[in-house]
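Hi support team,

I've been running sequence recovery on a batch of backbones for a student project. Most finish fine, but this one hangs at about 90% for roughly twenty minutes before it completes. I'm not sure whether the input is malformed or the queue is just slow. I've pasted the structure tokens below so you can try to reproduce it. Let me know if you need the job ID as well.

Thanks,
M.K.
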């Protein structure tokens, strides 16, 4: 039997193929709505992999909607000529979850292009920090570090957490919405659980790391997430 991490990495690789095909087919264009683009990606996932299963709601956010975290359900916007948008998709491949988020920019707006670049750079920087310190980090430690990363890059952090556990579908129904399952400011040493701690069955836990930087004055946000493998 393959280790859980191998399954998760394979699922993420397939999700990356999905995103690459979104780019190859030039699906991210002005004029269509967020919902239309969302549906196109849903059908593309079925065409490529035969999947209809997503373990969380599929998100396409553009314009001012990019300010909003996952739990919000804003009005359906049309994508503009000089827009910024991001995807947050959680396709399930053979009962293993992927969770990948990426930001796209239409046009040459300098702050939007910088934001797209910064969320990717910050994710990589955060992963290096995690790899060096994971045996002593709580969720609160890593969240606070990530908030400081946002300041370092000149942005505000846009969510109340910066990641969560991921696993075999449907892990969220088994684990629930407890803060202990998130990289959350309340997931601290008082919980006596480090991010490297095993689960209740003694198995290794795996984390999705999210970067969501925003600028409220400019009404823009950027998002990037992947597996911390």
């Amino acid at each position: 039997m393959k280790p859980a991490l191998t399954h998760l990495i394979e699922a993420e690789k397939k999700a990356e193929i999905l995103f690459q095909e979104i780019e190859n087919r030039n699906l991210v264009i002005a004029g269509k709505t967020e919902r239309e683009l969302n549906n196109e990606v849903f059908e593309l996932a079925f065409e490529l992999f035969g999947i209809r299963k997503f373990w969380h709601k599929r998100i396409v956010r553009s314009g001012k909607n990019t300010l909003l975290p996952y739990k919000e359900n804003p009005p359906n916007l049309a994508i503009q000529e000089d827009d910024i948008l991001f995807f947050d998709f959680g396709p399930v491949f053979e009962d293993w979850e992927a969770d990948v988020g990426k930001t796209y920019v239409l046009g040459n707006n300098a702050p939007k292009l910088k934001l797209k670049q910064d969320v990717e750079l910050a994710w990589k920087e955060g992963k290096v920090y995690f790899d060096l310190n994971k045996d002593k980090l709580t969720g609160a430690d890593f969240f606070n570090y990530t908030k400081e990363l946002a300041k370092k890059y000149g942005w505000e952090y846009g969510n109340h957490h910066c990641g969560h556990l991921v696993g075999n579908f449907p892990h969220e129904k088994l684990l629930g919405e407890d803060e202990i399952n998130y990289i959350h400011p309340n997931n601290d040493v008082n919980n006596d659980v480090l991010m490297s701690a095993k689960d209740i069955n003694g198995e290794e836990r795996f984390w999705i790391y999210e970067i969501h930087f925003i600028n409220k004055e400019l009404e823009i946000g950027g998002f990037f997430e992947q597996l911390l493998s």
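--
Follow-up from support: It reproduced on our side and the slowdown came from queue contention, not your input. The helical segments are 4-24, 34-49, 110-133, 139-152, 171-175. No action needed from you.
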